[in-house]
Specification:
Rossmann fold; NAD binding; six-stranded parallel beta sheet; alpha/beta; binds uridine-5'-diphosphate-glucuronic acid; oxidoreductase
Length: 439
């Protein structure tokens, strides 16, 4: 099969490389000539474990090519995927679909025969209808099918998630040709027994938002439980385990922390809220989740100031991890941004170290000094705050850290270290949701 991928962002580049790895012929198209040249030279635009190697092998095998020429790229394609960005529109939180529609228009104008256009970008309900309208208006002569195929991969685990998905959702308007093309596109996943689920197009669009909003709700629920645990003297990790062992609830996404961030949950929850309001079917639970999560990120700053003894002015706080989660250099809506803001507002000086995120983070937090290692960050600091649970932070020499600091205060926002261990190393410890598991 020949597959064209429009957009070489997270979803486009990972999906394109994985499709090529399954043996399809893939052309990735991006307007950004610098980005395409860099990828061709082996430099990935994002940090994602294994991606450079996957792109390299498939490009060398001739199955994965890159171009800035969209009309050339879509020629003879069996399926053309739109995987461009859908950021939050400034001001109102609606998804900005201008890139999706611009790509759709250019694709349709370049077609020389029937085509299946697939939206992989996260798009609100009804976007497929609009793409179809554009297609009919510009090329009434051609049979163009528009399909929705949302992507559920996670940053940092993107290749594994793409190749071994829990499910693949394909939304169509019932066209047999579209169903047959999409079945062939995903046939290589049959061996991994990934359920391929066909639905209506609007339903598929909504499934993506419902999934992200549900996960964001699960996280927010446990974060509020964590606050309650702190207030009543209970332990949130045991609460998570105690409820997560119930198969109807499940143990995943029940880690309390500083609030969810990233390029998806904040944007998608907001867009779902807007859709609900537009259709007079408000999703009040998600409206609350959005508010609670925003407040939580800022509250983490206050939690740190409290751990400093209530006064941050003139003190130095060292942050370990700035990206919104490990194994990515993505800083979008990272809790660290709100934490730095709150600490700087309170008069503290902030030092930070992150294994991959510092280049991206530095211009976003100009007042922060970037250190060369976790130990360098901690040296002379009045508090050490674990913000992102990178593997590299899981077995630090706590004694060495504590003894190098002005005051051995540890604020573990990811509950990585057992309290007893950190206390034995000399730290005064603040965690999220209690004093640690009794088990
Ligand atoms: C999320 C979804 O998990 C993917 O299925 C989806 O495809 C993707 O959005 C998307 O829409 O593109 P991602 O944003 O990469 O993936 O990251 P997650 O692993 O879901 O984490 C999101 C945020 O939730 C992070 O800030 C993380 O620290 C936080 N989180 C996650 C918690 O605080 N606790 C948890 O138990 C799990």
């Amino acid at each position: 099969m020949k597959i064209t991928m429009i957009g070489t962002g997270y979803v486009g580049l990972v999906s394109g490389a994985c499709f090529a790895d399954f043996g399809h012929d893939v052309v990735c198209v991006d307007k950004d000539a610098g980005k395409i040249a860099a990828i061709e030279a082996g430099t990935m635009p994002i940090y994602e474990p294994g991606l450079d190697q996957l792109v390299g092998t498939n490009a060398a095998a001739g199955r994965l090519t890159f171009t800035t020429d969209l009309p050339e790229g879509v020629k003879g394609a069996d399926a053309i995927f739109i995987a461009v960005g859908t950021p939050s529109r400034r001001g109102d939180g609606h998804a900005d679909l201008s890139y999706v529609y611009a790509a759709a228009k250019e694709i349709v104008e370049s077609l020389d025969g029937p085509a299946v256009i697939v939206t992989k970008s996260t798009v609100p309900v009804g976007t497929g209808d609009e793409v179809e309208r554009i297609a009919r208006e510009l090329r009434p002569d051609l049979d163009i099918q528009v399909v929705s195929n949302p992507e559920f991969l996670r940053e940092g685990a993107a290749i594994g998630d793409f190749k071994r998905p829990d499910r693949v959702v394909v939304g169509t308007t019932g066209s047999e040709r579209a169903i047959s093309v999409m079945s062939q596109v995903y046939r290589p996943l049959n061996l991994n027994q990934a359920p391929l689920m066909f639905t209506g197009r609007r339903t598929a669009e909504l499934i993506k938002y419902a999934a992200n909003a549900f996960l964001a709700t699960k996280i927010t629920f446990i974060n509020e439980m964590a606050d309650l645990c702190e207030a009543v003297g209970a332990e949130v990790q045991d609460v998570s385990r105690g409820i997560g062992l119930d198969k109807r609830i499940g143990s995943k996404f029940l880690h309390a922390g500083p609030g969810y961030g990233g390029s998806c949950f904040p944007k998608d929850t907001l867009a779902l809220v807007k859709t609900g309001q537009d259709y007079d079917a408000p999703i009040r639970i998600v409206e609350t989740v959005v508010q609670v999560n925003d407040l939580r990120k800022r509250a983490m700053g206050r939690k740190i100031v409290k751990a400093l003894g209530g006064e941050a002015r003139g003190k130095t706080v060292a942050l370990l991890g700035v990206t919104f989660k490990p194994n990515t250099d993505d800083m979008r809506d990272a809790p660290s941004l709100a934490i730095v803001q709150a600490l700087e507002d309170a008069g503290a000086k902030v030092v930070a170290y992150d294994p991959e995120g510092m280049d991206v983070a530095a211009p976003m937090m100009p007042g922060v000094t970037m250190a060369g290692s976790a130990y360098e960050a901690a040296s002379g600091a009045d508090a050490l705050v674990l913000v992102t649970e990178w593997d590299a932070f899981r077995a630090l020499d706590l004694k060495r850290l504590a003894s190098s600091m002005s005051a051995p205060v540890l604020v573990d926002l990811r509950n990585i270290y057992p309290v007893a261990e950190a206390e034995a190393a000399g730290f005064t410890v603040t965690r999220v949701g209690g004093k640690g598991s009794a088990a």
